[in-house]
Amino acid sequence: MALKTREDYLAALRKLRPNIYKFGELIEDVTTHPATKRTVESHALNYDAANDPELEDIYSITSTFTGDKVLRWNSMMQSMEDLIGNMRMKRQNYRRTGSCTGAVCVGWNAMNVMWAVCSEMDQANGTAYQQRLKNWILSAQDKGLTVAGALTDAKGDRSLKPSQQADPDTNLRINEVREDGIIIRGAKLMICGTAASQEIFLLPGSIYGKADQDYSLACVVPRDIEGLTIVEATRPSDRRELEETSVVETPDTGVTQGWLLFEDVFVPNERVFLCKEYKYTAKVIQYFTANYRACIGGCVTGQGDVMIGASVLMARLNGLSAKTFTDKLINMSLNNTVTYGLGAGACALGAKHPSGSYFADPHTAHTNKVMVATLPYEVKRLTQEIGGGIVETGCMPSYKDFTNPQYGHMIRKCLKAGAGSAESRFKAARLSEWLTIGSGVPGCMHGGGSPDGAKLVVRYTTPLEEYAEYARKIINIEEEITEPQKNM
Predict the structure, then answer these.
(1) Which of 12, 15, 106, 421 has the most CB within a 10 Å radius?
(2) How far apart are CA 465 and CA 467, in angstroms?
(3) Contact, 360 vs 296, CB < 8 A?
(4) May I ask the CATH architecture of the domain 7-282?
(5) Does position 255 have pLDDT exceeding 90, yes or no?
(6) pLDDT, tens digit, for every residue of 57-101?
(7) Contact of 111 with 271, CB cutoff 8 Å
(8) CATH code for residues 292-461
C-alpha cells in the first residue's frame, strides 16, 4: 500500500467533527486556524519526510504484519534498532520543526506497550485483547494515522487516590460496562498533539489497586468522538501566533497541548484493550516509561541542535564571531549528547518481551529522564546568554512596530548590528525567544512524568547491597555489614 501524503493527512483532519476550543472559540478547521495550524504543519512535515527519498528510511519501515512499507510511527518496535530508530526520527523532527510532534510519538509508544500487556493478560486470563489491538494497528497502518497518547489525569487532591476524590471526574474512569463496550467519563490534561491527531490512545495515568479498578482502562478513540471536548492550553507566544504578522514573529511550526474532557463517551469493545484489570496497570506504566524516557533523549537533543544553530546566527547578527562563544557552544553540544547517548544506551541495554515488543533498560531510561529535566534548561539559558537582551528580556518591539511607517525606520536602525539585515536579526531573536520561553519549549521537566518519579525507579533499580558486597570483598572485610536497626 502507498504511504499517505501531506494532502491525505490534511484531508483526513478536515473531515473530523469540530470539537476543539481555544480562547472560548470553536475551531472549525484545525489545518487553517492560527491557534492550531502550526502543530498541524509540524505533523504534516512527517508525511513529507516519509515520502522523501533522502529521509524515508528514518520516517518509514516495513510492517511486521504485512510486509508493506508503513509510516514508522504506526510500526511495532521489536528491537534495539527499532527503538533507536524512534530516537533518530524524533531528533530529526525537532531539527525540522523546532518543537514537539506528539501525535507521531506517544500513541505509537502506547500501542507497543499494550501489545505486550495484552499478551500477558490473554495468556493469564483467556481474554482476546491482543487480536483486537492487532486489528486496530493494521487499520492504523493502512490509514497512516497520527495518534496522540493520553496518560496524565487531572488527578485532583494529590494526597488521595482516584476513588477517594471528592469529584470522580478528575480522573478518567469506566462509568459503565455494557455488552458492546464501555462508557467513560473524566479528564486527561496537557496532552500533546491532540489538535493534529486523528485518534487518541488512552492509558491509565498511574498504578492502581482494586479500589481504583474503574480507572484501569486502555482504549483508543477517534479524536472527534461524540462526548469528547478538547480545550487547547495557552502559551507565552500564543498571541503573537494569532496575529497577521505571525509569519515573521514565530515559525510556521509549533506545539499545542489539549485538555481532554470526556462526558459519557461510548467506546466499542473492539477499541478497548484493558477494562478494570488493575493488576496490569503497573506493567503499563513500567513499559511505557522505559521506552518513552529513553527516546525523549532524541526530542530534547534535536531541539538543542536548533538552539545551537540559533545561537550561532544571533552571535553573527550581533556583530560577533560565533567563535567568541566556543566554550558555551561546546557545553550545549555536550548536554545534547548526554541525553541522546543515555537514551541510546538505554535502548542498547534493553530486552525483548515474549510478545515481541522491545523495551529499554529501566534504570538507564529513568536516569535519562532526570537528565532531560535539567540539562536542556542549561542549553536554553546559554541560548539566551549568547543571544543577548533582545532574546531574554522580552524588550523587543513587535513586527508591526518594526514596519511602522512613522517610526519603524528608527527601530530598524537600532536592530542592524552585524552581518545580515535588521529583519534577519529580528527573526533570529524571535526564534531564540520562542525556543526558550515560547511555544517551541518541549516538556523537559514533566513531559512523560516527573523527574522525582524517575528518581524512585533509579533508587529501586540501584542494587546497593550488591555494590556493598563488591566493596567488602575487595578490601577483605570478613564480617557482614548490615543496616543499623532503627531506634523505636
Answers:
(1) 106
(2) 5
(3) no
(4) Beta Barrel (2.40)
(5) no
(6) 999 999 999 999 999 999 999 999 999 999 999 999 999 999 899
(7) no
(8) 1.20.140.10
